[in-house]
Amino acid sequence: MRYIRYAFLAALAIVVISVSLANRELVTLNLLPAELAEFLGLNWTISLPLFLVVLGGIVAGLVIGFIWEWLREHKHRRVASVKAREVDKLEREVVRLKGERNQNRDEVLAILDEAS
């Protein structure tokens, strides 16, 4: 399974490198459309190679998706945490009740009772 993962990563690296080499032309990115930038006085532009724009968009989408999922699953993690605390509480209560039940019994019988 490890070799399949390495083969997949190598193929992915080859594809990313070939796309990067094929798209080295510079493109200009504008923060706002030209008319709106003139009206607001925010004429922010940057020139980057096209492959950086494409790969940056993919990375930004992945990061936004991971954050969105983490926020969406918050309620499930909270419920799991509450259930785990409840299980711990009940396990402590079971141990306490077994101790009370075996308090006046022979130690050997108490050990055998706990084992079953």
Automatic annotation (TrEMBL):
Coiled-coil stretches: 80-107
Lipopolysaccharide assembly protein A domain sequence ranges: 23-94
Xref: Pfam families: LapA_dom (PF06305)
Keywords: Cell membrane, Coiled coil, Membrane, Transmembrane, Transmembrane helix
Membrane-crossing segments per the record: 46-68
Protein name in UniProt: LapA family protein
Organism of this sequence: Arenibacterium halophilum
